[in-house]
Every structure is written in structure tokens, then in C-alpha cells.
Amino acid sequence: MQILLKKTMYSLFRRSVIPLTRTTGLRTLCTQAVEPGSKEHIEKLVKNKQVVVFMKGTPDKPMCGFSNAVVQLMTFHGVEKYESYNVLEDDTLRQGIKAYSNWPTIPQVYMNGEFIGGCDIMLDMHKNGDLIEELGKVGIRSAVLDMEKNKE
Amino acid sequence: MASEAERPVQAGITRKLTEHFQPHHLDIVNESFMHKVPKGSELHFRVVVVSDKFQDKPVIQRHRMVNEVLQEELKNIIALSISAKTPDQWQDSDQKVGKSPACRGGAFL
Fold it and tell me: Residue ranges of region Disordered (chain B) (predicted)?
């Protein structure tokens, strides 16, 4: 009971503090005509959005090491505004996103409606510099570029 | 070294990846010990596959190839971390398996 209460309070807190992190429950209310977890539903979540992360937990409290790694990468590259969806709160979305991307694991990162990859791929792209380029494609200047500039 | 009977999932992953990719190098690490799961669990894996079959394929496609081969296993395991390299890339790398990020407690959620 206590845990449930804590969870509810936490989710209320999240809604009020970071409006960009939407809980899927809210989303479902807004998109009644669209079947939750369907291709159409997920397309709406990712289309025309710079960066969207499907993860376990929230950016403030990731519930999985791989999801946490992706959040850390976003912070490192100075990506402040991205939408995140907690699949642990919505099993329909959890299954739906796996089917939509044809990708069996979480986290999953989308940029401009395009599936970029999971944690391993994001880490690879971070290491080889491709992530800077990929962010640039959707109009985000990676903070890493400024770090390099400062070094010069 | 645990026998195949004691580690059926790992044995299955090894067999399938070997058959499908004829890898120059193959590492399969059961990382379940890093998570809050019963001792001896086979739920979190990290694989390194070095194969000619990845030549000229983008990384996302390489991962899809591995996921495809392990689709049955993926129905039951919680995590699969993949490193898919060509023999040249493997030669140029530090040739280490690496380690997955620390668990954040959500394994059974």
C-alpha cells in the first residue's frame, strides 16, 4: 500500500515538475480514438519530435542500467528537451514499441520519427562521434562541440 | 565451468550464434549476477560476435541480425547487450568484452 502511494505521489510529482515527461495514462486519455500501443499511436508519439526515449523508469529515476546510460548520454550532450515514456507504467506501450521498431529490448531512441537504436548503439555512436552528427540532423547542437571548443 | 545442462540458455545462444555467424570470435557473458535475480539465473546476457557476415552492414542491421537469430531466447531473457563487429574492426579494437551498466533495480518490473 505504502509503495503504491509512493508511486502515485511520485507520478503526480513528475507530472507537475517536468511536463515533457508524459505518463502514458495521460496520453491515452488524449488519444482515445487511437488504440494504445498500435502503430498509429506510436507514430504519433515519435513523429516530428526531435528526440523521444522509451525507457524503464523516468529520466529522474531510471529503473534499468541501460535506460540510465541513455539518460546520461542525453545529459552529457546537453539534450535538455526530449520526451520520455516509461514503459513500466504501460505494458501496452512496452509491447507496442517493440513491435513498431521490430526491436526486442528497451530503451529505444527515436529522432525525428526515425528509430536510432538501443543502449549499445547509442553508446557506440557516442564513442565514435556519430551521435553529435545525428543530433545535428534534428537541429540539436551537442554540448560536446562546445567542450571541444573550450579546449582549443 | 557449468555444464550445458546447468546453463541451457547460454548453451542455446552459443550454438545458434556459432551456427549462424561462423564467428571469428564469440564471447557470451551471463551478467545475471549483476542483477537482483536468483543465483544461477540466465536472464541478462552480453554477447560479442565477430563475423564476416557483418561486412558492409550498418550497426543497426547487425543488431537486428543477432536479435533475429535469438528471437526465441529474447522472449524469456531480460537483457541482451550486443557488440557485432567485423574481423577488421575487432583487430582494431581493444578486444575486450566490456561490462554492462549497473542495474537500477527494475529487472522484474
Answer: 89-109
User: Residue A68: which of B59, B104, B109 has the nearest Cβ?
Assistant: B104
Dihedral (C-alpha) B74, B35, A12, A88: value to the nearest 10 degrees? 10
pLDDT, tens digit (0-9, with 9 covering 90-100), for A42-66: 999 999 999 999 999 999 999 999 9
Number of domains chain A is built from: 1
| CATH architecture for segment(s) B8-92 | 2-Layer Sandwich (3.30)
The residue extents of the domains of chain B are 8-92
Chain A residues in contact with B82 (beta carbon < 8 A): 120
Distance of residue A80 Cα from the nearest chain B Cα, in angstroms: 22
- Quote the domain boundaries for residue A138: 2-151
Please give the helix or strand (H or E) that residue B49 lies within, else none. Answer: strand B44-50
Q: What is the pLDDT of residues A110-126, one digit of tens each?
A: 999 999 999 999 999 99
Here the ipTM equals 0.89
Secondary structure letter of residue A52 according to DSSP = E
B109: exposed, middle or buried (Cβ count in 10 Å: 0-12, 13-18, 19+): exposed
> Does A115 contact B at CB distance below 8 Å?
yes
